[in-house]
Structures are given as structure tokens and as C-alpha cells.
Amino acid sequence: VLVGANRIGQSILDSLKSLNHEVVVVDFDPDIIKRLEGQNIDSFFGDITDLDIQEVAQLVSAKLVISTVPDIEDNLLLLKGVKKNKNRVKVIVVAQDDEEARQLYKEGADYVVLPHLAGGRHIAKIISENKIENIGRLR
Q1: How far is CA 22 from the centre of its chain?
Q2: pLDDT 10s digit of each residue in the chain, 139 long?
Q3: I need a surface site. Which of 13, 54, 85, 139 has the fewest CB within 10 A?
Q4: CATH fold of 2-114, please?
């Protein structure tokens, strides 16, 4: 289950589909849902903190739940909903800073992504692996 298919979520969705993984998307943006439906991707409009949406998306039977939602409260409620069933669903969430990441790990997240940190590391890797004058060719 992928929660949020804008920006980061779209990249994750593309990767999962290219690996032939079955993906269900939950998003609160009707335009994103319309686009996904046009691509024949199983998707649901709604707020993932809504227990009915969690049931429709079958969170408790998923192997993996990935939330790209930047709101810590939404991610904490998502973790609570998934982990209360004591199932083995793995959960990856997004945090905005180290404090949020610690809180999400404490509440049961299996992995927490800090997008700003990941972006900075990616840029540093590009610079370290390429000559500065060649960076424009990497586009």
C-alpha cells in the first residue's frame, strides 16, 4: 500500500510497478486519484487516518505500507492502525527532522526516510563521483 502518490510517491510507484509488485494507492488529492485510475492503478481517495479507508486499502493484510505523507500526526495514526493488529506488515514513513524520525521509530516504524537528508546525500554522491564540469551531462 502506497500512501501519497505525488512527488516522492510517484517515483516509488513507478519503481514498484516496474518490478511487477501489486500496489494499492491511497491519496487525498482527487486529481492524483483520477490520474492513477486513468493508468489502471488500484487507488482510493481518502484520508489514511480514516479507519474505513484503512480497511478498504487492506492495510492489515499488506506486506508493506509506504507513507510519503509529510504530516507526523497522520503517520503516527497510520502506525497505530497497522501495528495494533500485531501483524508483520512493514511500514516505511517520511519524517521532516530527526526528532520526528525518533518518534516514528519509537511508535513502530520499520524505516523512516528524511527526504532533505537523502537529497543532500544524493547531491554529495553526484559531486564525489563526477567532475564538476560533467554534472550537466547527468540530466
Answers
A1: 15
A2: 999 999 899 999 999 999 999 999 999 999 999 999 999 999 999 999 998 998 888 888 899 999 999 999 999 999 998 887 767 899 999 999 999 999 999 999 999 999 888 778 888 888 888 777 777 777 7
A3: 139
A4: Rossmann fold (3.40.50)
